[in-house]
Amino acid sequence: MIYLDYQATTPLAPEVREAMLPWLDRFGNPHSAHRLGREAGAAIEIATPQVAAALGDGSGKGRLIFTSGATEAANWALRGAIQHGTRRKIVTVATEHACVLDTAEWLARQGIELTVLPVLGDGTVDLNAAAEAIDDRTALVATMLVNNEIGVVQPVEALARMAHEAGAFFFCDAVQGFGRVDLSLDSCDLVAISAHKLHGPKGIGALWLRESLDWPPMIHGGGQQQGLRSGTLSPMLCAGFGAAAKLADERRADDAAHVASLFAIAQTLFSDWTLNGDRTARYPGNLNLRREGVDAARVISEVREVAFSAGSACASGSGRPSHVLRALGLSDGEARSSIRLGFGRYTTQEEIDQAASLINQAAARQLEWA
Predict the structure, then answer these.
(1) Superfamily for the 2-9+252-369 domain
(2) Domain limits, the chain
(3) How many CB atoms lie under 10 A from the CB of residue 345?
(4) Which of 93, 177, 244, 286 has the largest CB neighbor count within 10 A?
(5) What is the pLDDT of residue 179?
């Protein structure tokens, strides 16, 4: 099968698998003081700076706390901001991932003030609306680096500057851009990342916190991870995350050139489709396209040789049109006529060519019988 759903998850890198395998048998608790425990703990100590370096923190400007994934990290950032002080307002963006929007809406039901900023037709946040919304009541401003559905890169530094000028924290969901798109850590107070979007294992992510932050703990218990998130860590998952991050750091230029080449080729192959989101302010490994009169769900079901999607894997099966595409101003019909193709390190030009042919044929059959 041709895999073009890199925004949902990425194939495990062979180097990552190799780094993880020894820890299937080396079962020591990494928090134990005996030799087996110290060996397991050493794997985590090696992985931590590898992940931090790929994020851009090779000098130790912050603390990296491993989590079960980016969803947990985002929950921790938003809920922690409200617990941290006396401010009771969250500002976020209409095209955010559900882990941010749903957490923000849950907080709103608890009495927290919530402002969800609109985006322009190209998918970038309306900075004028942001300037009006971010004020001295704001505890946290939250936005993505790269949108998981349309690949648009948000103006993180501009939003962070507004947040800091108002005395608020700034949180960035960097999952889709981690290891691929530049992020100014100097602009951020908290950052969420995930291993499985970077050719690492599922079940592990991290929250990066600026060193000066005194943040409320996420989980209480044995006091692991500096008392911020108790619980026994998996050396296997941490080693895999570290290996994936190190590899991404080393291959960054090559991966970027490869993805840009595939993006250029794919655009010519889908010339009858319209690109959703800004053409230049985007990560090129994401191609979100729509074609009038096409039922995306039907195309996906017919083209079984290709794994691709109509949007976020987290929202699949809901039957609702994408909230991201609706935020761009697209109608329900236009949103349901949109597909998302995600590609990366292990995608070949031949696979793009073949996938485009199969998808275009399926769309043409629909239009012919419409």
Answers:
(1) Aspartate Aminotransferase, domain 1 (3.90.1150.10)
(2) 2-9+252-369, 15-246
(3) 19
(4) 244
(5) 96
Place of tokens 């794994």: 307
Q: pLDDT averaged over the chain?
A: 95
* The amino acid at 138: T
With residue 78 as reference, give the H or E element that holds it.
helix 70-84
CATH topology match: 2-9+252-369 vs 15-246: no
What tokens does 358 get?
């199969």
The pLDDT value given to residue 321: 84
d(CA 302, CA 362): 7
Which residue is listed with tokens 């950052």?
A: 191
Contact between 283 and 153 under an 8 Å Cβ cutoff? The reply is: yes
What SS3 state is found at 82? helix
Non-local (6+) Cβ contacts of 43 within 8 A are 23, 30, 235, 238, 239
Type of residue at 161: R
For 15-246, CATH number? Answer: 3.40.640.10
- For residue 314, indicate whether it is catalytic: yes
Q: Is this structure's pTM higher than 0.90?
A: yes
CA quadruple 225, 229, 233, 237: dihedral sign = negative
Which H/E stretch holds residue 206?
strand 205-210
